[in-house]
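Fold sample X.
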Amino acid sequence: MNRRIDAWSLRLFVATARAGSIVRAAQQEHIAPSALSRRIADLEHAFGTPLLVRSPRGVVPTDAGQLVLARGEQIDADLQGLVREVQTQGGLLRGTVRLYANMSSVIGFLPERLQSFMAACPHVDVALHEQDTRDVIRACLDDRADVGVGVAVPVPAGLDAWHFATDPLQVVVPAGHVLAPRKTLAFAQVLEHPLIGVHQGGALDQSLHERAAVLGQTFAPRVTVSSFDAVCRMVEAGMGIAVIPQSAAAAYAGNPRFVRRPLHDPWAKRELSLYAPRKSPRPKTVQALIEALRGDVASGLASSG
């Protein structure tokens, strides 16, 4: 074959096809969009066929692009795995660990634990990706993530899981709200007031819809935003109240303009789990990060489902 296909261009194509956007993929891979676009054009020239259909709304793979995407994902995973294995040979921990984590763990628990880990292992880089819990688990199952953190769910076959943290749900209301004098609140009481939602379709959003349905009611936010800080700004402005994890409430509603109250429904005791693809042995850097994130947790490995 007289046309060279390099692994970096293949990785950029995979990232672009996944993201559906050259701009988003360029941000994820820390490269200029114009440079990424040239790389993909060179790759298309090497294959002798278009790989993407480009439009103002983004990009989608052609039939040939679908084939290159499927094979390219495996090639990239194999190469990244080879790099990690080589980098973890010997006694010195070095290399990159891929960590996927949900929004509340990134806000409330990971910064300090990651700082301690990286201080102890200065030659290890952590590539952190913020995703919803279902995407965290999918990344672990697809071997795109070495370690994941998300809401505790039944453990899929092929993954190991440990307790990571307890992050119960709280109700955030503006100071002076009619619910502010109450010490605790039931979800049924919350549903009687205008609501602010977060991350439509995400794990928390789905859970609140399901719990409302059990009560014979509807979880119908007046406004839905994409982040916990935006939720709290909407609450502060008086647009409604919100149910969010304690970690997020402490980070963004910890001043006198807000009142935070526990949600006392039994299901509101929200647990986070640490996930990892089941491998034996694991790369040393991955095992070191798992141990660091577990901290003093003594619970045993959860069985796979």
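Fold sample Y, listed below.
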Amino acid sequence: MTSAAGSVAVGGGTSAGGDRIATGGLDLTHGVVLYLEGISVSFDGFKALNNLSLSIDAGELRCVIGPNGAGKTTMMDVITGKTRPDAGTAFFGQTIDLTRLSEAQIAHAGIGRKFQKPTIFERHTVFENLELSMKADKRVRTTLFSKLNSNQRDAIAETLKLIRLESESSRLAGLLSHGQKQWLEIGMLLMQEPRLLLLDEPVAGMSDEETERTAELFLSLAGKHSLVVVEHDMAFIEKIARQVTVLHEGSVIAEGPMEQVQNDPKVIEVYLGR
């Protein structure tokens, strides 16, 4: 089962076909959590991705930037199984072929995605949102007749502290500020224990203070999790960037440290100079 927009998997982790994907078996032998090679996707003759190749190291925080139409969303759609590539390979770790899995299987394997607009259960409390998102058996009988054990409560408490919503735990999620809703959805993803987080324009609409707190949150998550952050707010990118990938017309045109990318003539021409 997923939330309304499908960004947070809260089900039991079994695909429609009944194939369960083991989450403990992610092979990071070579230190790479995500590997895309030669990915191409066309829509009615328009090439959204054109021979795109990209690799993300385990524990890395990677920022992906580029103009509108560069292929950033389509890239995340391929990673999460929403879009099947016309050509190329996409692997999670060394052995999990993402092109062969359903969206639900990919979520259960350990890839979480956050869309720009927060998707939360507004009529439930903050605590209940995290509880509903917990990686556990969500069959009706288990949900109705079980109580949280101490480990589960500790996990929720730890997440509340991480996303700075401890004081809001009993508040209805619909009453939170925009930034708090964004943090709650990130917390909901974290309850799924993902190895890779895909975050689409996470600070859009946030205040300066909320943006600063989000930068701190992402930096604290790197290492334990791998993060791919797609964002247009360059000031925010500068706060968190270690390695930056620039997309244009479905391909990587530059990659490297922020300062190097900012001074790349082609990047300035197609993106930063606009």
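Sample Y note: The chain has ten helices and ten strands.
Also: Residues 1-23 have pLDDT under 50 and may be disordered.
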